[in-house]
Write a structure and sequence with these properties.
2 copies of one chain form a homodimer. Chain A is built from 12 helices and 11 strands. Chain A is α/β, with parallel strands linked by helices. Chain A has a 5-stranded parallel β-sheet with strand order 2-1-3-4-5. The first copy, chain A, has a 4-stranded parallel β-sheet with strand order 7-6-8-9, sandwiched between helices. The longest helix of chain A has 16 residues. The termini of chain A are far apart. The structure holds a DNA duplex.
DNA sequence: CTGTTAGCGCATTCAA
DNA sequence: TTGAATGCGCTAACAG
């Protein structure tokens, strides 16, 4: 590929002039400008972003690490990050961690080596201690969906406790007292926080917590299928199921439908995340919003601001109930 | 951030030695190696990927352009691309085009400026002529989901005609003769190809093509909702609906369920793509596979191979029926 | 096995 | 308004 020198030669100007017109960094005579533009076009030239990053000590790249892009949750998140990047004339470098510590570490290191002008990390397998080192060394690094003690102001997440408290309370207010909970088996804070929200809601409303009714499965479609089968052969009674997330709930409901069990007539189901697909389910899933899009946006904005040594105040990320049709009011 | 020189100084060796141990490009004495490793760790050093790309005239980046990462279709695709990138020690630069020509062009130019070692492009708004210029100038550029005359061997896509012929034929074989078709309103080849598949299947089986029963909407959830309402107030009869894609079908079915119309008892529905969510619907959606994951994989492999001046033979991308429960056999 | 050095392509001083 | 020259951080000859 042509270099800036080729363009300069063809346009009969110096490389400095070419740089100036292509970047608009200084006044250039119309004559020179046109010559440069023509030459640029003739050669099909694009400034080399690597060389530029080196010379400017500043890149146009923002790095993002997620578990898995095909997961609708992360798809929405990455989309938001990309939009912020785009409006700041940047482009996204994306890596996937797949919940594996090795992959996550490799990804972070790779992103760091690219000298990103912003870094948003969703890593759940890397130990706190290691994450803390990174956070200390790279003050523009922002974490998402995880709270690291000492770095709370660079951790973007929702109040999981409150969210799951809300779904459980909703079930209780609709007359349910025997409520199963399908939790995530991942060893992340979210899972504990949400489970605590569930427990507290039960306690606050005088319901008993039945440990037999708390399952742990992979927080995916497959996990939902497993959970559904386990619940169906469960000896303890329950009238409703609260789920760690919508994906679980969706798969669960698919199994129920397949077995001829009617939701919500026989069993009520409530989710968490308000994924795009949840409104398409039959019945549409009652759930709670998880504003991933907004979190992705603000995480990126925060990282960018920190990178540029600017102030940035993170907003609160609200979670709210989306009432649809998968919960039955037992009192009617 | 520290540079290779800082490391060299601290380790008491030359920069060349540091480079050698960090890249494993040549034998280095254990003594020197350890010193380098220690210094590297002490300084929290990562080789600068930009400088390296410049020196090596080769980057570790693969560029991908899609319409929108949050679209489950593209989520799956990007995931595949990333996996291939990862196993080739590369990392993905991701841009979104949102079906807008300007965005697509900016994205392509940005990816080019990064001197990617591979380039997979899903652009549907950029005119053929312009795309052809790019394809000519960058022989490692690969297109996905679009066929550009003259560059067929670098265009990765399925046989849309055959896929939609298959779904329509399936409906016909189950006794349906009045079949509506919900097409995409995007001006892309896919839409025409699929619609032709639908028409041909009808003709081949002696069914009439009723132009009134062919709708065009945005190929999204919103589009599905619109289509459902239009169909419900349609005066012409039909017993089944073939959809351009699963997203449309999902939203369509949600509206039907809401209106108390039973699928498949009253209306049969068939999709296209076999998205992850389709098996969660109630009833689970009968559809046809669209191997996006495999396409993403091979598109990336092809681009990488071309970049490295290697031979690479693209496989056929098969589409096959996934029989579930949204189609009723009228003859039973 | 190791160090010196010359670029890689660009932005940016500094002079003119 | 322009150009010459320097250096960004690294790799890869080359010489030792």
């Amino acid at each position: 590929m042509a270099t800036i020198r080729d363009v300069a030669r063809l346009a009969n100007v110096s490389v400095a002039t070419v740089s100036r017109v292509l970047n608009g960094t200084a006044k250039v005579s119309d004559e020179a400008k046109n010559a440069v533009l023509e030459a640029t076009h003739a050669l099909g030239f694009y400034l080399n972003a690597n060389a530029r990053a080196l010379a400017q000590k500043d890149s146009e790249i923002i790095g993002v690490l997620v578990s898995e892009v095909s997961d609708p949750y992360f798809g929405v998140m990455v989309r938001s990050c990309e939009e912020v990047a785009h409006s700041n004339e940047k482009i996204l470098l994306v890596a996937q961690g797949f919940h594996e510590e090795k992959r996550e570490l490799r990804a972070i290191n790779s992103l760091l080596s690219h000298r990103c002008a912003g870094l948003v990390v969703h890593a759940l397998a890397v130990p706190d201690k290691v994450m803390a080192e990174y956070m200390k060394s790279f003050p523009y690094m922002v974490m998402i969906n995880r709270v690291l003690p000492g770095f709370e102001d660079r951790c973007v997440n929702i109040n999981n406790f409150r969210g799951m408290y809300l779904t459980t309370k909703t079930l209780i207010e609709n007359g349910h007292r025997k409520i199963a909970y399908v939790n995530s088996s991942h060893r992340i804070l979210d899972a504990d926080e949400r489970c605590n929200g569930y427990r507290q809601a039960l306690l606050d409303h005088g319901c008993e917590v039945n440990e037999n009714l708390i399952l742990k499965v992979s927080p995916s479609l497959e996990g939902g299928t497993t959970a559904a089968h386990k619940l169906l052969e469960h000896k303890d009674e329950f009238t409703a199921v609260a789920c760690y997330n919508d994906a679980l709930a969706a798969a669960l409901m698919a199994v129920f439908a397949d077995k001829g069990i009617k939701v919500p007539e026989q069993i009520s189901v409530i989710g968490f995340d308000n994924l795009f697909l949840s409104s398409c389910l039959n019945p549409p899933l009652t759930t709670v919003t998880n504003p991933v899009d907004i979190m992705g946006k603000y995480a990126t904005l925060l990282s960018l601001a920190l990178y540029n040594h600017q102030e940035f105040k993170l907003p609160e990320f609200e979670t709210k109930l989306i009432w649809r049709k998968s919960v039955r009011d037992l009192e009617k």
